[in-house]
C-alpha cells in the first residue's frame, strides 16, 4: 500500500519507538483520519488538590432523576469531588442549612406537583424560616414540554433556594424528555464553576433561564382505518387495536405517541346547560380564542380536577369546598356559579388537557404510512361507580372513519439493538404494543438475531392479544420462542415472571451470550416482579451471590442490555 | 394390494396411537392440535371442533378459530353408577359447556372442552372409573337400526313398546 520510501521511514520510526509512544502515534493518526487537527487529550476538570464536597440530591418519580443524578455523581467522583448522593425522601432535611454545595435534580409531575418522594423537601424549603447564605446551588429540572406545567417544580425549588439566600452558581436548566445532553452540559458548567476559586459570581444576579421551545412537537393527523376490540366477547377487558393512516410520519420502533383526549360532548353540553353560558361565545385561553364548547371539549381538563384547582374554584365562588378531587360538573352542581360571567372566571383556572402517551404498536418498515396503537380501556371504580380513563374512553369510543391528532414522542432509551443481537421481550397486556413493533421491524428488515417473547393476559381463549400474528411470526421463524402466561385459566394465577422462572436456565444462557432484555407494560406490580425474577435467575443460574447478581444486572443496564418502557 | 388410506398411514406411524398428542397439548400458542393428531385422538374418544359462526369475528380480532373438543365416554351396556353420574355432572360444569348429552348409542358426551382442560377432564373421568377409549373414529360401535313397524314383525313388536310408553 505504501511506496518503498514511505514504508522505510515508517519502519524506522516504529523500530525506535517505545510502546506508549506508539499508542500516542496511533491516537494522533486516527484523529487526523477522523478530521481533527490533533488528538485531544482527555481533559480532567477540577484537579485542585483539596477535594470539595458537594451534595447531589434527586427527587424522582419515574427513575429518570435518579439515573441522571447517579451518572453525575460518578462523574463528580472522577473529577476529584467528594459526593454525597441522596434521594430527597431519604435526605435529612435538617442538614440543608449546613450544605455548602447543593445540586438538585428534580422532575415535575404532570399537574405541576413535585414527585411524591420530594414533597417533604419541597414543603420544608417553602414553609420553614431558615437561611442558606453559605450555600451554592443549582437546579436541573426534568420535565416534558407536552405538559402545561413544564418543569414547574424545578423552577419553584430554584426560586426558593435563592430566596433563602443561596447563591446560584449555574442557572437552572430545564430538560425535556431527551434530557441527557442538557444534564451533561449543566454539570460541566458546575464543575467549571466549582473549579474557579473562589467563586466569583456575585449573588442575586438575575440570570435569564433558557427559553424552552414548546412548539417543537409536530402535530400529525391520523385517519382511523381500523378500530377493533381485540378481546373476544365474554372478556372483562377492552383493548383496542387502532390503525391510523398518516402522511410522512417519522418514528422508530420503541417510540410513543402523545394524544390529547377530547371530553365527551354530552358532558360538555351538560356543563354548558348548568352554567347558562352561551356555547358559541369566544373565550381567550392561553393566547388563543375558542368557542366555549370547543374549549371545554378539546382544551381543558374537566374530569377529576386536582385539589389545587378545587381550591381556586372555591375562592372564586367564595364558598368552603372540601379539598378533594372532583369533576367540574359535580362542582357546578354542588357549588353553583353565580352567573355565566363567573363561569368564565372558572374557565381560566381549569388546567389545560394533558396528553396521554401510548407506545406505538407498528413498525415503520412493516407498516409504512401507518401508525398502530394498542389501547386498553382503563376502567376503575370511584365511590362504587365505574369510571373510565379520559383518554382511553375517548380512543375506545372512536369509530373507523374518524381522525385523531397526535405527536410522536421519541424514546431513545428503548431501541432495538444491532440486527444480529438476540432479543428477549417481556410484554404482557398492552406491553405487547412495543414488541409488535419490534418483531414486525425485525421481520421486515430481515434481522438475524433471535427473538423470544413473553406475553401474558387473563384468559387464552378471549384475551390473547394479536394471537394470529404471533402464531405467524412463530411459524415463519422470526419469533424463535414464545412463552405465555394466562393468569386466570387455572386455579392458581400464573404470570410472566412465573414463566420466566420456569425457563430460568435458558434465559440465563441467552443473557450470558449477549441478549438484550426489554420490558414493556405495567410498571407495578408487573415490571417489579420481572426485575426481581431476572435478578434471581442471575443468582441461581449464573451461580452468583446476591451482590454479584446485582452487579451483573447493573452491568447489563450500563451496556444498554436491560431496557424498560413501563407505565 | 391398493395403497393404504391416509388415515391408515397416520395410524401406522402413530407409535400405537400416541402420535404427537403430547407435543400438541404442550403447544401454548394454539387451542388446536396438530393435523395428524386430530385423527389419532379419535381413538382416545375425542373430536376437535370449532365454532363456525365465530370464525369471521375472531379473525377480525386477530384471534384464531374458537377450537374446542368433544369427549365421549365408553359405557359398557349403557350403565353407570349414581356416583359416576354425579362425577360426570361435576366435570361437565367445570370443564365443558355444562351440558351432558345422552346419545342414541347409550353413552354420554361433553362438548366445548378447551385444550388446556383436556387433561384435567380425562383425569377426573379416570378417578371416577370412567374412560373414553375408542369411542370415536373407525372402531366398533353399538349397532343401531330403524324402528319402522312395517319392516318386519319384530320391528312392529318393538315399535309397539314405544307407543305404549307414550300412552303412559
How is this structure best described in words?
The complex is a heterodimer of chains A (567) and B (168). Chain A has 19 helices and 21 strands. With 567 residues, chain A is an alpha/beta fold. Chain A has four domains: 53-201, Flavodoxin domain (Rossmann fold, 3-Layer(aba) Sandwich); 220-262 and 355-409, Translation factors (Elongation Factor Tu (Ef-tu), domain 3, Beta Barrel), CATH 2.40.30.10; 265-349, no CATH class; 423-566, 3-Layer(aba) Sandwich (Rossmann fold), CATH 3.40.50.80. In chain A, the strands form five sheets. In chain A, strands 1, 2, 3, 4, 5 and 6 form a six-stranded parallel β-sheet that branches. The longest helix of chain A is centred in the last third of the chain and has 19 residues, at 523-541. The model of chain A is unreliable at 36-49 and 199-215 (pLDDT under 50). The radius of gyration of chain B is 19 Å and the shape is globular. The mean pLDDT of chain B is 92. In chain B, helix 5 (82-95) packs antiparallel against helix 6. Chain B has 168 residues and is of the alpha+beta class. The N and C termini of chain B lie far apart (57 Å). Chain B has seven helices and four strands. Chain A binds chain B through residues 228-232, 241, 460-462, 464-471, 474, 482-484, 489-490, and chain B through 28-31, 58-64, 66, 114, 116.
Amino acid at each position: 500500500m505504501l511506496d518503498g520510501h514511505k514504508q522505510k521511514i515508517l519502519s524506522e520510526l516504529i523500530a525506535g519507538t517505545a510502546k506508549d509512544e506508539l499508542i500516542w502515534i496511533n491516537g494522533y493518526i486516527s484523529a487526523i483520519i477522523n478530521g481533527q487537527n490533533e488528538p485531544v487529550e482527555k481533559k480532567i476538570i477540577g484537579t485542585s488538590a483539596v477535594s470539595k464536597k458537594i451534595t447531589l440530591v434527586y427527587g424522582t418519580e419515574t427513575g429518570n432523576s435518579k439515573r441522571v443524578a447517579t451518572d453525575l455523581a460518578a462523574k463528580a467522583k472522577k473529577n476529584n469531588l467528594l459526593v454525597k448522593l441522596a434521594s430527597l425522601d431519604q435526605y435529612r432535611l435538617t442538614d440543608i442549612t449546613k450544605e455548602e454545595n447543593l445540586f438538585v435534580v428534580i422532575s415535575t409531575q404532570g399537574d405541576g406537583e413535585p414527585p411524591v418522594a420530594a414533597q417533604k423537601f419541597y414543603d420544608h424549603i417553602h414553609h420553614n424560616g431558615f437561611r442558606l447564605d453559605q450555600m451554592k446551588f443549582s437546579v436541573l429540572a426534568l420535565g416534558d414540554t407536552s405538559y402545561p406545567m413544564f418543569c414547574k417544580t424545578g423552577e419553584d425549588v430554584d426560586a426558593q433556594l435563592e430566596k433563602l439566600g443561596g447563591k446560584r452558581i449555574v442557572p437552572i436548566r430545564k430538560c425535556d424528555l431527551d434530557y441527557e445532553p442538557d444534564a451533561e452540559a449543566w454539570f460541566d458548567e458546575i464543575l467549571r464553576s466549582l473549579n474557579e476559586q473562589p467563586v466569583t459570581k456575585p449573588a442575586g444576579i438575575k440570570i435569564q433561564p433558557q427559553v424552552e421551545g414548546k412548539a417543537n412537537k409536530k402535530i400529525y393527523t391520523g385517519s382511523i382505518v381500523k378500530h377493533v376490540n381485540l378481546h373476544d366477547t365474554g372478556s372483562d377487558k377492552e383493548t383496542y387495536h387502532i390503525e391510523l393512516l398518516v402522511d410522512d410520519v417519522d418514528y422508530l420502533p420503541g417510540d410513543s405517541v402523545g394524544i390529547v383526549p377530547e371530553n365527551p360532548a354530552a358532558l360538555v353540553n351538560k356543563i354548558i346547560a348548568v352554567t347558562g353560558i352561551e356555547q358559541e361565545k369566544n373565550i381567550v385561553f392561553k393566547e388563543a380564542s375558542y368557542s366555549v364548547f370547543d374549549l371545554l371539549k378539546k382544551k381543558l381538563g374537566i374530569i377529576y380536577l386536582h385539589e389545587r384547582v378545587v381550591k381556586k374554584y372555591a375562592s372564586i365562588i367564595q364558598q368552603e369546598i372540601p379539598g378533594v378531587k372532583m369533576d367540574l360538573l359535580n362542582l357546578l352542581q354542588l357549588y353553583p356559579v353565580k352567573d355565566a360571567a363567573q363561569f368564565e372566571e372558572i374557565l381560566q383556572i381549569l388546567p389545560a388537557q394533558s396528553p396521554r402517551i401510548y407506545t406505538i404498536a407498528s413498525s415503520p418498515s412493516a407498516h409504512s404510512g401507518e401508525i398502530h396503537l394498542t389501547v386498553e380501556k382503563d376502567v376503575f371504580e370511584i365511590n362504587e361507580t365505574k369510571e373510565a380513563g379520559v383518554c382511553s374512553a375517548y380512543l375506545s369510543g372512536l369509530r373507523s372513519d374518524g381522525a385523531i391528532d397526535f405527536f410522536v414522542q421519541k424514546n431513545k432509551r428503548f431501541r432495538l439493538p444491532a440486527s444480529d443481537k438476540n432479543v428477549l421481550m417481556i410484554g404482557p397486556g398492552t406491553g405487547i404494543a412495543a414488541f409488535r413493533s419490534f418483531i414486525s421491524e425485525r421481520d421486515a428488515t430481515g434481522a438475524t438475531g433471535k427473538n423470544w417473547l413473553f406475553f401474558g393476559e387473563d384468559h387464552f381463549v378471549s384475551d390473547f392479544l394479536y394471537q394470529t400474528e404471533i402464531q405467524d411470526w412463530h411459524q415463519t421463524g422470526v419469533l424463535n420462542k414464545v412463552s405465555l402466561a394466562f393468569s386466570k385459566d387455572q386455579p392458581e394465577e400464573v404470570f410472566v415472571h412465573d414463566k420466566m422462572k420456569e425457563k430460568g436456565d435458558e434465559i440465563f444462557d441467552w443473557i450470558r451470550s449477549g441478549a438484550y432484555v426489554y420490558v414493556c407494560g405495567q410498571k407495578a406490580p408487573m415490571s417489579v416482579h420481572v426485575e426481581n425474577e431476572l435478578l434471581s435467575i442471575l443468582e441461581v443460574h449464573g451461580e452468583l451471590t446476591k451482590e454479584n447478581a446485582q452487579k451483573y444486572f447493573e452491568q447489563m443496564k450500563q451496556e444498554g442490555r436491560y431496557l424498560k418502557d413501563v407505565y | 394390494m391398493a395403497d393404504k388410506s391416509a388415515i391408515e398411514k397416520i395410524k401406522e406411524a402413530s407409535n400405537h396411537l400416541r402420535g404427537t398428542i403430547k407435543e400438541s397439548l404442550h403447544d401454548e400458542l394454539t387451542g388446536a392440535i396438530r393435523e395428524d393428531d386430530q385423527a389419532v385422538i379419535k381413538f382416545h374418544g375425542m373430536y376437535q371442533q370449532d365454532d363456525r359462526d365465530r370464525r369471521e369475528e375472531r379473525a377480525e380480532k386477530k384471534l384464531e378459530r374458537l377450537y374446542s373438543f368433544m369427549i365421549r365416554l365408553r359405557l359398557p351396556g349403557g350403565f353407570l353408577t349414581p356416583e359416576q353420574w354425579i362425577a360426570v355432572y361435576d366435570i361437565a360444569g367445570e370443564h365443558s359447556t355444562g351440558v351432558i348429552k345422552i346419545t342414541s348409542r347409550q353413552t354420554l358426551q361433553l362438548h366445548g372442552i378447551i385444550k388446556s382442560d383436556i387433561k384435567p377432564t380425562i383425569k377426573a373421568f379416570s378417578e371416577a372409573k370412567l374412560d373414553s377409549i375408542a369411542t370415536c373414529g373407525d372402531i366398533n360401535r353399538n349397532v343401531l337400526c330403524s324402528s319402522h313397524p312395517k319392516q318386519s314383525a319384530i320391528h312392529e313388536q318393538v315399535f309397539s313398546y314405544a307407543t305404549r310408553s307414550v300412552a303412559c
